[in-house]
Design goal:
The structure is a single chain. With 219 residues, the chain is of the alpha/beta class. It has one domain: Uracil-DNA Glycosylase, subunit E, CATH 3.40.470. Helix content is 42%, strand content 13%. The protein has ten helices and seven strands. β5 and β6 form a beta hairpin. α1 runs antiparallel to α4. The chain binds uracil.
Protein backbone atom coordinates (compact mmCIF):
# COMPACT_ATOMS: atom_id res chain seq x y z
CA UNK A 1 0.00 0.00 0.00
CA UNK A 2 1.24 3.50 -0.83
CA UNK A 3 2.22 5.41 2.30
CA UNK A 4 1.96 9.18 2.67
CA UNK A 5 5.77 9.25 2.49
CA UNK A 6 5.66 7.86 -1.07
CA UNK A 7 2.85 10.18 -2.22
CA UNK A 8 4.06 13.30 -4.08
CA UNK A 9 3.34 16.58 -2.28
CA UNK A 10 0.23 18.53 -3.25
CA UNK A 11 2.51 21.09 -4.92
CA UNK A 12 4.12 18.38 -7.04
CA UNK A 13 0.75 16.87 -7.95
CA UNK A 14 -0.53 20.31 -8.98
CA UNK A 15 2.56 20.89 -11.11
CA UNK A 16 1.97 17.58 -12.86
CA UNK A 17 -1.68 18.49 -13.45
CA UNK A 18 -0.62 21.83 -14.92
CA UNK A 19 1.76 20.09 -17.31
CA UNK A 20 -0.99 17.70 -18.34
CA UNK A 21 -3.32 20.63 -19.02
CA UNK A 22 -0.69 22.47 -21.03
CA UNK A 23 -0.31 19.39 -23.25
CA UNK A 24 -4.07 18.79 -23.65
CA UNK A 25 -4.81 19.89 -27.21
CA UNK A 26 -8.52 19.14 -26.80
CA UNK A 27 -8.96 22.19 -24.55
CA UNK A 28 -10.51 25.32 -26.09
CA UNK A 29 -9.04 28.87 -26.06
CA UNK A 30 -5.51 27.59 -26.73
CA UNK A 31 -4.56 30.90 -28.38
CA UNK A 32 -4.24 32.35 -24.90
CA UNK A 33 -1.93 31.36 -22.06
CA UNK A 34 -2.73 28.77 -19.45
CA UNK A 35 -3.45 30.42 -16.09
CA UNK A 36 -3.49 27.39 -13.84
CA UNK A 37 -3.78 29.02 -10.41
CA UNK A 38 -1.45 29.92 -7.59
CA UNK A 39 -1.06 30.04 -3.85
CA UNK A 40 -0.68 27.65 -0.97
CA UNK A 41 -1.81 24.14 -1.97
CA UNK A 42 -2.29 23.32 1.72
CA UNK A 43 -4.81 26.17 2.12
CA UNK A 44 -8.21 25.26 3.58
CA UNK A 45 -9.73 27.77 1.14
CA UNK A 46 -9.74 27.85 -2.65
CA UNK A 47 -11.03 30.97 -4.41
CA UNK A 48 -12.50 30.19 -7.83
CA UNK A 49 -13.15 32.95 -10.36
CA UNK A 50 -14.49 32.88 -13.89
CA UNK A 51 -11.66 33.10 -16.43
CA UNK A 52 -8.43 35.07 -16.85
CA UNK A 53 -8.60 38.55 -18.36
CA UNK A 54 -6.02 40.58 -20.25
CA UNK A 55 -3.56 41.05 -17.37
CA UNK A 56 -3.92 37.48 -16.12
CA UNK A 57 -3.23 36.15 -19.63
CA UNK A 58 -0.15 38.34 -19.94
CA UNK A 59 1.32 37.38 -16.55
CA UNK A 60 -0.10 33.82 -16.43
CA UNK A 61 -1.40 34.54 -12.93
CA UNK A 62 -5.02 34.71 -11.72
CA UNK A 63 -6.58 37.94 -10.47
CA UNK A 64 -3.76 40.40 -11.07
CA UNK A 65 -5.78 43.19 -12.74
CA UNK A 66 -8.30 45.57 -11.18
CA UNK A 67 -10.51 42.75 -9.86
CA UNK A 68 -7.40 41.18 -8.38
CA UNK A 69 -6.50 44.39 -6.58
CA UNK A 70 -9.95 44.39 -4.96
CA UNK A 71 -9.63 40.69 -4.12
CA UNK A 72 -6.23 41.31 -2.51
CA UNK A 73 -7.72 44.15 -0.45
CA UNK A 74 -10.62 42.00 0.74
CA UNK A 75 -8.23 39.18 1.64
CA UNK A 76 -5.96 41.54 3.57
CA UNK A 77 -8.90 43.16 5.36
CA UNK A 78 -9.83 39.84 6.93
CA UNK A 79 -6.25 39.39 8.12
CA UNK A 80 -5.17 36.86 5.48
CA UNK A 81 -2.35 37.03 2.98
CA UNK A 82 -2.80 36.20 -0.69
CA UNK A 83 0.10 33.74 -0.61
CA UNK A 84 -1.54 31.76 2.20
CA UNK A 85 -4.66 30.89 0.22
CA UNK A 86 -5.13 29.41 -3.27
CA UNK A 87 -6.69 31.23 -6.25
CA UNK A 88 -7.80 29.80 -9.57
CA UNK A 89 -10.56 30.06 -12.20
CA UNK A 90 -13.08 27.63 -13.60
CA UNK A 91 -11.90 28.37 -17.17
CA UNK A 92 -8.13 28.61 -17.26
CA UNK A 93 -7.57 30.50 -20.50
CA UNK A 94 -8.81 33.95 -21.50
CA UNK A 95 -11.95 34.09 -23.67
CA UNK A 96 -11.53 36.61 -26.54
CA UNK A 97 -12.38 40.20 -25.57
CA UNK A 98 -13.09 38.99 -22.01
CA UNK A 99 -16.48 37.65 -23.06
CA UNK A 100 -18.33 35.29 -20.72
CA UNK A 101 -17.08 31.72 -20.93
CA UNK A 102 -19.32 29.46 -23.05
CA UNK A 103 -20.91 26.31 -21.58
CA UNK A 104 -18.64 24.11 -23.73
CA UNK A 105 -15.56 25.95 -22.48
CA UNK A 106 -16.64 25.53 -18.87
CA UNK A 107 -17.40 21.87 -19.56
CA UNK A 108 -13.96 21.31 -21.08
CA UNK A 109 -12.07 22.87 -18.17
CA UNK A 110 -14.17 21.69 -15.23
CA UNK A 111 -12.64 18.20 -14.92
CA UNK A 112 -9.30 19.92 -14.30
CA UNK A 113 -10.82 22.12 -11.59
CA UNK A 114 -12.26 19.00 -10.00
CA UNK A 115 -8.83 17.34 -10.04
CA UNK A 116 -7.21 20.48 -8.62
CA UNK A 117 -9.73 20.34 -5.76
CA UNK A 118 -9.24 16.59 -5.29
CA UNK A 119 -5.51 17.20 -4.84
CA UNK A 120 -5.89 20.16 -2.50
CA UNK A 121 -8.82 18.89 -0.44
CA UNK A 122 -9.90 22.36 0.72
CA UNK A 123 -12.56 22.79 3.39
CA UNK A 124 -14.12 25.81 1.68
CA UNK A 125 -14.53 26.78 -1.97
CA UNK A 126 -15.18 30.53 -2.19
CA UNK A 127 -16.70 31.07 -5.63
CA UNK A 128 -16.37 34.49 -7.27
CA UNK A 129 -19.26 35.18 -9.62
CA UNK A 130 -22.00 33.02 -11.01
CA UNK A 131 -20.03 30.74 -13.33
CA UNK A 132 -17.98 29.01 -10.65
CA UNK A 133 -20.96 29.07 -8.25
CA UNK A 134 -23.17 27.31 -10.81
CA UNK A 135 -20.55 24.62 -11.31
CA UNK A 136 -21.30 23.43 -7.76
CA UNK A 137 -24.86 24.74 -7.39
CA UNK A 138 -26.50 24.74 -10.83
CA UNK A 139 -29.74 26.36 -9.68
CA UNK A 140 -28.27 28.93 -7.31
CA UNK A 141 -28.77 32.63 -8.02
CA UNK A 142 -25.90 34.91 -7.18
CA UNK A 143 -27.96 37.81 -5.79
CA UNK A 144 -30.08 35.47 -3.66
CA UNK A 145 -27.37 33.08 -2.52
CA UNK A 146 -24.17 35.09 -2.19
CA UNK A 147 -22.72 34.82 1.30
CA UNK A 148 -24.70 31.66 2.15
CA UNK A 149 -23.03 28.40 3.03
CA UNK A 150 -23.62 25.22 1.07
CA UNK A 151 -22.18 21.77 1.39
CA UNK A 152 -20.83 20.11 -1.74
CA UNK A 153 -19.34 16.63 -1.34
CA UNK A 154 -16.83 16.96 1.49
CA UNK A 155 -16.35 20.72 1.49
CA UNK A 156 -18.38 23.90 1.86
CA UNK A 157 -19.18 26.27 -0.99
CA UNK A 158 -19.67 29.96 -0.24
CA UNK A 159 -20.73 32.03 -3.27
CA UNK A 160 -19.50 35.63 -3.53
CA UNK A 161 -20.21 38.37 -6.02
CA UNK A 162 -17.45 38.66 -8.60
CA UNK A 163 -15.05 41.50 -7.68
CA UNK A 164 -15.48 42.99 -11.19
CA UNK A 165 -19.24 43.31 -10.55
CA UNK A 166 -18.53 44.87 -7.16
CA UNK A 167 -16.30 47.44 -8.84
CA UNK A 168 -19.34 48.56 -10.87
CA UNK A 169 -21.88 48.66 -8.04
CA UNK A 170 -21.54 50.02 -4.51
CA UNK A 171 -24.42 47.81 -3.34
CA UNK A 172 -22.58 44.71 -4.53
CA UNK A 173 -19.32 45.99 -3.09
CA UNK A 174 -20.91 46.43 0.34
CA UNK A 175 -22.48 42.96 0.15
CA UNK A 176 -19.17 41.44 -0.93
CA UNK A 177 -17.28 43.11 1.91
CA UNK A 178 -19.89 41.98 4.45
CA UNK A 179 -19.85 38.37 3.24
CA UNK A 180 -16.06 38.33 3.10
CA UNK A 181 -15.83 39.30 6.76
CA UNK A 182 -17.70 36.10 7.64
CA UNK A 183 -15.23 33.89 5.80
CA UNK A 184 -12.64 33.36 8.58
CA UNK A 185 -15.34 32.14 10.95
CA UNK A 186 -16.80 29.86 8.27
CA UNK A 187 -13.34 28.35 7.70
CA UNK A 188 -12.77 27.93 11.46
CA UNK A 189 -16.14 26.22 11.81
CA UNK A 190 -15.93 24.22 8.56
CA UNK A 191 -15.12 20.84 10.13
CA UNK A 192 -18.07 20.99 12.51
CA UNK A 193 -20.42 22.40 9.86
CA UNK A 194 -19.46 19.56 7.55
CA UNK A 195 -20.30 17.06 10.28
CA UNK A 196 -23.60 18.79 10.93
CA UNK A 197 -24.83 19.30 7.36
CA UNK A 198 -25.89 16.17 5.50
CA UNK A 199 -23.97 15.63 2.27
CA UNK A 200 -26.01 16.75 -0.72
CA UNK A 201 -24.00 14.29 -2.73
CA UNK A 202 -24.17 10.83 -1.27
CA UNK A 203 -23.02 9.02 -4.38
CA UNK A 204 -19.81 10.87 -5.09
CA UNK A 205 -21.06 12.38 -8.34
CA UNK A 206 -21.57 16.07 -8.93
CA UNK A 207 -25.00 16.76 -7.48
CA UNK A 208 -25.53 19.95 -5.48
CA UNK A 209 -29.27 19.72 -6.05
CA UNK A 210 -30.16 23.31 -6.39
CA UNK A 211 -33.88 22.91 -5.69
CA UNK A 212 -32.86 21.96 -2.19
CA UNK A 213 -29.21 22.72 -1.69
CA UNK A 214 -27.94 21.91 1.75
CA UNK A 215 -27.62 25.38 3.09
CA UNK A 216 -27.13 26.91 6.46
CA UNK A 217 -26.87 30.55 7.43
CA UNK A 218 -24.48 31.00 10.32
CA UNK A 219 -25.12 34.65 11.05
N1 LIG B 1 -11.63 37.67 -13.40
C1 LIG B 1 -11.66 36.35 -13.14
O1 LIG B 1 -12.73 35.75 -13.02
N2 LIG B 1 -10.52 35.72 -13.01
C2 LIG B 1 -9.34 36.31 -13.10
O2 LIG B 1 -8.33 35.64 -12.94
C3 LIG B 1 -9.33 37.70 -13.34
C4 LIG B 1 -10.48 38.36 -13.50
Amino acid sequence: MESSVDRPSKQKQLEELEQEMAADVSLPLRDSNLVFGEGNPESAVIFIGEAPGFHEDRLKRPFVGLSGKLLDKLINEIGWKREDIYITNIVKRRPPENRDPLPDEIGAYQPYLERQIAIMKPKVAATLGRFSMNHFLPEAKISRDQGKIFRFKDFLVVPFFHPAAALRSTTMLEALKKSFKELPEIVRGAESLLRELPASDAGGTRVAKAEAPTQKKLF
